[in-house]
Design a protein that fits this description.
Length: 247
């Protein structure tokens, strides 16, 4: 004689509740606290590499409609707003097309005068110190960057980071003076000769477009390895970048 074991209705309902609660918790974490992003281009080399997976702290600057999934037009501006600091690496929505995420470094705050002259960044008429700091070679096929000169910049507040300067005569090495409007920010990529940023079509970034501050690299695959190619992970994992704080 065989017996069929059937789950009690109460047990099924408990399982459903657990799944729903887990989904709600995941949504809250993604909306309010941290959101994962992957780096698809070399504009932030050497700080961030193609194949880096990062967590972005969405609580750092408060919340706008772009903090929510699908960006519903529920309110304007920011709530619980916090201001980025100069030197922060920030994910934001591309002003001409807010459906696209960009990641750059904040170099200009509201009211600042920003200019690049002969490859040197000037903030309010003062050059940001730029000293040689070795060379960089990328493992990204579309941007190989063999032995690209690295320069370390140091801001007035002591924030320091590396930048790349592949060519002394790129179109972004000499710009007009930009004045950052109130409620906006001026962004630049650390890969100075290969970054579409506020010097070009990005323009000034409204505070509302900020998504969050890049906080930590939690995973990283080199050599153009797809996340789906699990069998390639051991050979292409950048072990030294795991859980590295973004500076």
């Amino acid at each position: 004689m065989s017996e069929k074991v059937q789950a009690k209705p109460n047990a099924l309902w408990e399982n459903v509740k657990v799944i729903v609660q887990a989904l709600i918790l995941a949504m809250v974490i993604r909306t309010v606290l941290f959101q994962p992003f992957t780096i698809p281009s070399g504009s932030m080399m050497p700080t961030l590499l193609v194949g880096d997976y990062i967590f972005v702290n969405k609580f750092a600057y408060g919340f706008s409609k772009y903090s929510l999934p699908f960006s519903p037009d529920l309110f304007h501006g920011r709530i619980f707003a916090g201001a980025p600091q100069r030197g922060d690496v920030v994910v934001f929505r591309f002003p001409p097309n807010p459906s696209i995420d960009y990641i750059k470094r904040v170099v200009g705050l509201p009211g600042d005068h920003i200019q690049v002259t002969d490859g040197v960044l000037y903030i309010n008429g003062k050059p940001v110190p730029k000293v040689p700091d070795g060379s960089f070679t990328s493992d990204y096929a579309q941007d190989p960057g063999q032995d690209v000169p690295v320069f370390r910049e140091t801001l007035d507040d002591g924030k320091t980071y590396d930048t790349l300067d592949q060519s002394p005569n790129s179109r972004g090495d000499n710009t007009r003076e930009f004045i950052v409007p109130e409620g906006h920010y001026f962004m630049m990529g650390d890969n100075r000769d290969n970054s579409l940023d506020s010097r070009f079509d990005v323009g000034m970034v409204p505070a509302e477009n900020l998504v969050g501050r890049a906080s930590i690299i939690f995973f990283s695959l080199g050599n153009d390895t797809s996340f789906k190619e699990i069998w390639k992970w051991p050979a292409n994992m950048r072990w030294d970048r795991l859980f590295k704080v973004v500076e």
